[in-house]
From TrEMBL, chains A, B:
Keywords: ATP-binding, Ligase, Nucleotide-binding, Purine biosynthesis
Cited PROSITE patterns: ATP_GRASP
Assembly with partners or alone: Homodimer.
Record protein name field: N5-carboxyaminoimidazole ribonucleotide synthase
EC category: ligase
Organism of derivation: Mucilaginibacter ginsenosidivorax
Catalysed transformations (reactions): 5-amino-1-(5-phospho-beta-D-ribosyl)imidazole + hydrogencarbonate + ATP = 5-carboxyamino-1-(5-phospho-D-ribosyl)imidazole + ADP + phosphate + 2 H(+)
Length: 379, 379
């Protein structure tokens, strides 16, 4: 890679909150940042050297954008991979690599990759037609997921019994045995081009079932050491099998029998790593930059108990965002507010997050509950 | 103050590294940031919502810029204060207040303020003409400082004996008894409009005598508790006497007899507080924002030993900056690089800083020395 501090042009596909936090960190390295996003009001629009409005799914748009940078990364997987492949051929560095984005875009290929590489995952079957679904051998209940373009709970359907089948997706999908899990857990792993691999400590998640979003995340996990170690080893194994360059978020279930099953991958900074900004020696954003710049990876040690609370648009409100309770929340020591610069709120939209740190885990949880009930985004 | 998250227009006079780090933090609060700076290549130029090129000393320029914002702050004291005064009269919030910037711009007024408020400081005399200098009663050696526009060691002259007098400044100046100090120390204090006052823990500085710049800063200090307590009390007393809104950096000497003498004030984020980004629960930049937004001040507790090393342009090089040794430095755990986005280096120009954290103070110092000899800015 050419000497880059000062003159490296970094392109990011997507200009949302992940890009925004990546820029906050990239500022420290004098990088020239260019952003492509379809929304002219995207959170990154004013924070980069160049902001281009355009479709992330369009070959020409992504290709033309990529030709203006030295290194291209993503903050969302739903991008035109053919363009990325062509850019790689023409010498643009694309991290994560296009083949990995292609694999991860398709939940079916992702599952097959797990199977081929002995990565523990729930039993599954790839479904190409409604007829195949009727003939499937996975017992009820199971989860049907669209192979492509699902996110944040969209494109996911729980098939409890036969009566649910008529509302099932008709598109190519994947069905997975329902996991009656104890906990959702996650590990973020990074790998640089030199092959150095490093994991962040395991985190535990709590979902808001109504919004189907992570709304509460605890770092580090207090699960038994063997579970932590096993989860980190699985994440490392995946990163090494993929030979990914960049960050990889590995979402997992811990089932009632203490078995870990990998759910999904995201090849980028992830909502489940936001607490690393204040909670760990290096943040996921710093680590992603180090990985894609092929620099030594940073120390991921936890500095403190850290809880991440998503700040979601309140149900029933849609329009220009108003934040209630900020002053009360800032009164609590060890509370960090991150707003994402989105002008409009709507129900369950991710408007920001708050990290709460405390040397006492119970106190951290108590503070997090206070933040959750105090900070509201209305209109 | 009007509900501001999302719609507060914050103006910053100056677009250098302090503005840059303030923006990195302000991003978390959805603030619209406008910058005024004379240099079209200033470090903030691409990171704000609006960047205006113009003189900070010109009444019309500052006034017109100020009229476009709700809240105006500074990252450099050398600004047109008459314009700020007028803006205050017209309802723009100016923090720190114009009267404080006016006081601090004039080292003579600053010293008189110390005297009137019983703030310990070296004996001094205000000098308005070369004749007055010859008749001064301060014994040799003493330091002559221009009353206005000195910075980073410029406008300062040591008068060792009579033979030095012919090279002394002719302009209005201040002479101060030479302090044979043991250590330079500093406290950053913040005050919000509600009158809440909070200090960061005392830090110790080491200067590069050749460059006359802080190049090494250790936080927290290991000086005796009484010294720490006294220094923090002095800083609080100054903030309260001034009724400042915002941050105030208080530079002090600890003399050989253990007595603290206040040297100078800076009413803004300061080089001696950069280590707070990683070393303390809240950073000086977060604290400045909380103070000027009249929000509860944050917890300033140290999380770790933190050392701040200035990254200065290497002597003998002038031109487009090239950074040597970054990879070696990033290999060391607990090292954080902050580059300031300046295209051109020159001898001793502040091009960035590095913070080093370690639970072991001696190890932190060792790492800092390694960083200092490894990371070089050449051309």
């Amino acid at each position: 890679m050419k000497a880059f501090y000062g003159d490296l042009k970094l392109g990011i596909l997507g200009g949302g909150q992940l890009g925004r936090m990546l820029i906050q960190q990239a500022i420290n390295y004098n990088v020239t940042v260019k952003i492509l996003d379809p929304d002219r009001e995207a959170p990154c629009r004013k924070l980069c050297d160049e902001f281009t409005v355009g479709s992330l799914g369009d070959y020409e748009t992504v290709y033309n954008f990529g030709k203006t940078v030295d290194l291209l990364t993503i903050e969302i997987e739903k991008v035109n991979v053919d363009a990325l492949e062509q850019l790689e051929k023409e010498g643009v560095l694309v991290y994560p690599q296009s083949r990995i984005i292609r694999l991860i875009q398709d939940k079916g290929l992702q599952k097959q990759f797990f199977k081929e590489n002995d990565i523990p995952t729930a039993d599954f079957q790839i479904i190409s037609s409604p007829r195949e679904l009727l003939q499937s051998t996975i017992p009820f209940p199971y989860i049907q997921k669209l192979r492509r373009d699902g996110y944040d709970g969209k494109g996911v359907y729980k098939v409890v019994d036969e009566s649910y089948l008529d509302k099932a997706f008709k598109e190519p999908s994947l069905i997975e045995q329902w996991v009656d899990f104890e906990k959702e857990i996650g590990v973020i792993v990074a790998r640089n081009e030199n092959g150095e691999v490093s994991t962040f400590p395991l985190v535990e998640m709590e979902f808001n079932p109504e919004a189907n979003l992570v709304e509460f995340l605890i770092s580090p996990s207090t699960l038994p050491f063997e579970v932590q170690q096993q989860a980190e080893q699985i994440a490392k194994k995946i990163a090494e099998s993929l030979k990914i360059v960049g960050l990889l978020a590995v979402e997992m279930f811990l089932d009632k029998n203490g078995k870990i099953l990998v759910n999904e991958l995201a090849p980028r900074p992830h909502n489940s790593g936001h607490q690393t900004i204040e909670g760990n020696v290096v943040s996921q954003f710093e680590q992603h930059l180090r990985a894609i710049f092929n620099q030594p990876l940073g120390d991921t040690t936890c500095l403190n108990n850290a809880i991440m609370v998503n700040v979601l648009g309140e149900a029933g409100y849609e329009g220009p965002a108003v934040y209630k309770g900020i002053e009360k929340v800032l009164k609590v020591p060890g509370v960090y507010i991150h707003l994402y610069g989105k002008a409009l709120t709507k129900p369950f939209r991710k408007m920001g997050h708050v990290t709460i740190v405390d040397a006492d885990r119970e106190k951290a949880i108590e503070k997090a509950r206070f933040v959750q009930k105090t900070l509201k985004v209305i209109s």
